[in-house]
């Protein structure tokens, strides 16, 4: 958007006044677990907006983004700018973002939140593989003891895992508590969670 070959034809802003799950598009990183969590939380736009201290960047292009530390049990603020990693320049196609994309109508929030998550975790490479429950807890401020991962078993049952992390890296679980439930019981649990307004996603 600065005449440097990336999104120069778009009018860019944080949200364009609206936030939608389909604004989220994954890039060249194995972080579907982050992207699915962003899309799920985007069903409630105010939960995304509250993560940003401002709607527009400061004079140096910086945003203050709040994320929840599952290790420390508190919100932390990360200062990021609006410069995003790109792939090699192509003289015909121009630049393209390496990771989360800018939405078709010029919204930056998915790419900026992904950048804040990368800073929170120690870099983009640290997001290559992880747990959606970790991402949801980080975005929503949910204590780690209330997060549940569900994994489908070969016999049709589901394993429900409560994961404890030793740090703020989703690929470093400290330990697991798990129990198995039948498919019908799990579907009932999903229905109850939906009625109760829980945020859920799959990756």
TrEMBL record:
GO terms for molecular function: calcium-dependent cysteine-type endopeptidase activity. It comes from the Eukaryota. PROSITE patterns: CALPAIN_CAT, THIOL_PROTEASE_CYS. Keywords: Hydrolase, Protease, Thiol protease. The active site is at residue 32. Residues 23-145 form the Calpain catalytic domain. The keyword Protease applies. Signal peptide: none annotated. One of its GO terms (biological process) is proteolysis. Pfam families: Peptidase_C2. Belongs to the peptidase C2 family. This is Calpain catalytic domain-containing protein. The lineage of its organism: Eukaryota, Haptista, Haptophyta, Prymnesiophyceae, Prymnesiales.
């Amino acid at each position: 958007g600065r005449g440097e070959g990336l999104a120069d034809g778009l009018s860019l802003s944080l949200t364009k006044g609206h936030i939608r799950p389909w604004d989220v598009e994954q890039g060249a990183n194995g972080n579907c677990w982050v992207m699915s969590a962003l899309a799920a939380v985007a069903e409630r736009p105010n939960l995304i907006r509250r993560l940003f201290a401002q709607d527009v960047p400061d004079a140096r292009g910086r945003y203050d983004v709040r994320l929840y530390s599952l290790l420390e049990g508190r919100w932390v603020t990360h200062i990021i700018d609006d410069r995003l990693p790109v792939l090699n320049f192509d003289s015909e196609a121009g630049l393209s973002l390496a990771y989360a994309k800018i939405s078709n109508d010029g919204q930056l929030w998915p790419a900026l939140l992904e950048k804040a998550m990368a800073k929170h975790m120690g870099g983009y490479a640290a997001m290559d593989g992880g747990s959606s429950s970790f991402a949801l807890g980080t975005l929503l401020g949910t204590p780690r003891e209330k997060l549940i991962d569900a994994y489908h078993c070969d016999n049709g049952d589901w394993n429900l895992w409560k994961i404890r992390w030793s740090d703020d890296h989703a690929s470093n679980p400290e330990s697991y508590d798990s129990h198995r439930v039948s498919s019908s019981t799990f579907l009932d649990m999903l229905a109850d969670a939906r009625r109760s307004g829980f945020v859920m996603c799959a990756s």
